[in-house]
Amino acid sequence: MSGDGRAMSTPLVLVAGATGFVGRRLTRRLEQRRIRYVEASISTGIDLRNGAFQQLCLKTRPTVILNCAAYVGGIQFGYRHPGEIVYNNTLMSANLFEAARVSGVARVINPISNCSYPNVASGVLAESAWWAGELHESVLPYGFARKASWVNAWAYWKQYGLSTVNLILPNMYGPGDHFEPVRSHALGALVKKIVDAQASGALAVDVWGSGSPIREWLYVDDAVDYMLLAMELPTSFETVNVGVGRGISIRDLAFLIREMAGYTGELHFDPSKPDGAPLKIMDTTRLRAVFGALPSTSLREGIALTIQYYRSLVGAPEPAASEPVAPQPAASEPELCELRGR
Question: Is the pLDDT of residue 32 over 60?
Answer without folding.
Answer: yes
